[in-house]
Fold this protein.
Amino acid sequence: MPLPLKYQIRNNINIKHLTIKNKDMKNLTKTIALACVLFVSSVNVFASTDKGLNNAIVDNVVDAYINSTVYGETAYVNELFSNNFNQKFNGVSKQKAIQKNAYIQFLKQNKGVKYNCETSFEWVEKGKDYSLAKVTLDFGAFKRIDYVSVSMQQDGWKIDEVNSVYNK
């Protein structure tokens, strides 16, 4: 004997509901699996195996500059500066610009030496291939302001020039 019509309709609705739930679970499982794969692959892309300076991001280069000049950390100084780097101190007459090798040697000689100052930086200009940062070292009695010129090279962002100005 067949089931009454109202039970047949209710049974049909329940079967459709179960089918929808199974499809939703399959889609949810696929979505979670895809999210896991994307997460793992993104971690692998951004993980650095050599623990070198990530100079693909310009902020990292300026932070490394501050850490090397103010806090005496010399881990990345060889990767930090372009081949034509120079530093100039404005206001000092007849002083030659300091070239890359001499500046790196100075930083390595002062490894571990920390300046007693407050440090901050802001972007004066931030572009796709060129950026200019203003790094302020406040010693209390005076301020040293470094204008750090950074450009995109073939192997990432590099510091081209630093112009230092002293203010009272």
Remarks:
- The CA atoms of residues 84 and 94 lie 20 Å apart.
